[in-house]
Task: inverse folding
């Protein structure tokens, strides 16, 4: 479907991609990854026809429609649903033509256009647009409000909904999760796994890449390499390839040294001069193998204040919110030294309100906020980048916080966040979003807090920096409260969760998988409640209750085979995943890559591929069974 033929792409004097020669087939779901500035967005622009190749070509199968996300969505007066519907240009043109035909009284043309709209699935379009917006977190009462009423982040969600609604065979998504909460992200994962076309996705969320992608396309040092499998499989394959490359490099260097030693010893001897010249030519012909390099250039630590209090901070019988309305009521929480909490809940439920109250920015409407004597708060806001001075340098930002700090200590500190050498003295206005996010994190860390509150800290961070942040938070000695849609970060750094929903804050007894299940149950209960509301009055008598029980029994009986099939597949999947996990544990052993264990490594890599394929197949079968079960349950429920 998409073929790269000896492709070269250049921006200015810099080659982004060279000699790319590969093919992406129909239905592939491809994660496009690489360092910031490697050329990911430029490759998307090339596919959209906005850039031309400097050499070679990109070939896309004829007639394939491409949908892609806009970089920003303007604050216009168009209603959300109407803006999403505008994504289907053919449907909108048919609707306009129908209106013209109706005004002209052209009944033959009307009939023709009704058939055309039917063929475009136009009579379900509004319901589909509303479902997309609801899945991305919009309340029913907001669907017909104008775009201008919403912030930039929410408008980007509308833009994403429009992109998903647009008919396409090729879908290009550039960082679609940046403005989503965890609930909407899970919904988007499920939508994309069902998308029938070819997907290319730029993302720095490793769990999202794992859930959605079946191939990874890696841009590294101008080379495009396609890996089969999701992101975790790519990491393993990449590590194996780097280990092999390093071994080949060391072997070649040893051979070079041997040849150079021979030439140095015998070049001047007549009897050996011919052999020496032969070996010099051998050196010239020898293809250089680069030393394998570590991908992540980042490694930093988050210092903690020397003194602490227990508890660090408490909210007692607190009502949180704003002068015009309360958001959360009856809040009783305490944060102890070293405690690590992740906040769960949909956007708008009050997570940011809770954080603003914890840091003291927003006083409780009722109740009290009690801070420990030695509390030192570090706060990374969701829009922290807006508080940076664009006309200052990273060095100046830190120096303003601590005028007496030595120049060397500031430079050493900034170096850990990737601002080495002259980069520490560059204007922030010229920085990318990722560089600004790194600086904002550095400024929080410089203050040495014993309580860090982080509201979506991974927005704009690439995979390397996210991993560095996860490691730094894991080693951090203070308390942490995090709001994030990055599940890898949450799994790596928090010990427990608070659920913020329905005006309450309460401990959540479970992990992220349990939260996912809770969301599904909550959604099912919401649908059931909506059906109950539609039932006519007086339907709650004993006769109806008997009928409801009979219907429930029938539902259980008719869904029993599908439930049995789903449960069987789930058990097989769990067994296959356990086997795969065992193989991956063995592959993580550095000693396995010794030359003496080459056969064992080859066997394990083969078994890993076979097991991964089995897991993917079982996951696909399980998903189909689950969807079939849900569809049957919905059909039977609607019928009753």
Result:
């Amino acid at each position: 479907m998409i073929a790269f033929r000896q492709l070269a792409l250049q921006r200015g004097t810099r080659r982004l991609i060279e000699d790319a020669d590969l093919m992406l087939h129909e239905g592939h779901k491809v994660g496009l990854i690489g360092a910031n500035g490697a050329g990911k967005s430029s490759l998307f622009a090339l596919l959209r026809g906005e850039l031309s190749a400097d050499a070679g070509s990109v070939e896309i199968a004829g007639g394939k429609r491409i949908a892609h996300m806009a970089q920003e969505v303007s604050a216009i007066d168009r209603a959300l649903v109407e803006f999403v519907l505008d994504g289907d240009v053919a449907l909108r043109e048919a609707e306009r033509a129908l209106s013209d035909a109706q005004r002209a009284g052209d009944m033959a043309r009307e009939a023709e256009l009704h058939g055309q709209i039917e063929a475009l699935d136009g009579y379900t379009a509004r319901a589909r647009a509303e479902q997309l917006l609801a899945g991305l977190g919009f309340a029913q009462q907001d669907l017909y409000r104008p775009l201008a009423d919403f912030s930039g982040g929410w408008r980007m969600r509308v833009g994403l909904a429009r992109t998903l609604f647009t008919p396409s065979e090729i879908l290009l998504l550039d960082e679609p999760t940046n403005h989503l909460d965890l609930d909407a992200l899970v919904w988007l994962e499920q939508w994309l796994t069902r998308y029938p076309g070819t997907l290319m996705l730029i993302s720095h969320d490793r769990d999202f890449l794992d859930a959605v992608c079946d191939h990874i396309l890696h841009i590294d040092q101008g080379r495009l390499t396609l890996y089969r499998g999701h992101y975790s499989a790519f990491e393993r394959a990449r590590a194996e390839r780097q280990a092999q490359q390093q071994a080949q490099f060391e072997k070649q260097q040893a051979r070079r040294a041997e040849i150079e030693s021979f030439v140095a010893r015998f070049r001047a001897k007549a009897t050996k001069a011919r052999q020496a010249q032969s070996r010099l030519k051998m050196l010239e012909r020898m293809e250089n193998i680069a030393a394998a390099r570590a991908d992540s250039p980042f490694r930093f630590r988050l210092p903690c204040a020397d003194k602490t209090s227990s508890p660090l901070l408490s909210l007692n019988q607190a009502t949180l919110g704003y002068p015009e309305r309360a958001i959360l009521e009856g809040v009783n929480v305490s944060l102890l030294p070293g405690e690590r909490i992740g906040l769960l809940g949909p956007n708008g439920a009050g997570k940011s309100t809770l954080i603003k109250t914890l840091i003291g920015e927003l006083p409780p409407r009722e109740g009290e906020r009690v801070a420990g004597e030695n509390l030192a708060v570090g706060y990374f806001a969701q829009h922290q980048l807006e508080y940076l001075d664009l006309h200052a340098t990273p060095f100046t930002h830190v120096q303003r916080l601590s005028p007496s700090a030595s120049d060397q200590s500031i430079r050493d500190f900034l170096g850990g966040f990737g601002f080495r050498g002259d980069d520490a003295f560059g204007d922030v206005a010229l920085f990318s979003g990722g560089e600004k996010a790194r600086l904002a994190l550095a400024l929080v860390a410089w203050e040495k807090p014993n309580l860090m509150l982080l509201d979506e800290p991974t927005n704009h961070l690439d995979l390397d920096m996210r991993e560095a942040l996860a490691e730094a938070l894991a080693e951090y000695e203070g308390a942490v409260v995090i709001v994030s849609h990055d599940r890898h970060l949450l799994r790596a750094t928090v010990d427990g969760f608070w659920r913020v929903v329905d005006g309450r804050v309460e401990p959540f007894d479970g992990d992220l998988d349990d939260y996912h299940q809770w969301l599904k149950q909550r959604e099912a209960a919401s649908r059931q409640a909506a059906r109950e509301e539609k039932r006519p009055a007086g339907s709650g008598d004993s006769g109806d209750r008997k009928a409801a029980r009979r219907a429930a029994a029938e539902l259980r009986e008719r869904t029993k085979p599908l439930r049995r099939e789903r449960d069987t597949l789930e058990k097989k999947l769990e067994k296959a995943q356990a086997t795969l996990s065992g193989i991956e544990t063995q592959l993580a052993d550095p000693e396995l890559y010794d030359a003496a264990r080459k056969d064992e490594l080859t066997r394990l890599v083969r078994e890993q591929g076979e097991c991964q394929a089995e897991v993917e197949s079982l996951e696909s079968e399980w998903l189909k069974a689950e969807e079939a079960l849900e569809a049957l349950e919905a059909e039977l429920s609607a019928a009753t």
Notes: The longest strand covers residues 14-24. Residues 289-295 have pLDDT under 50 and may be disordered.
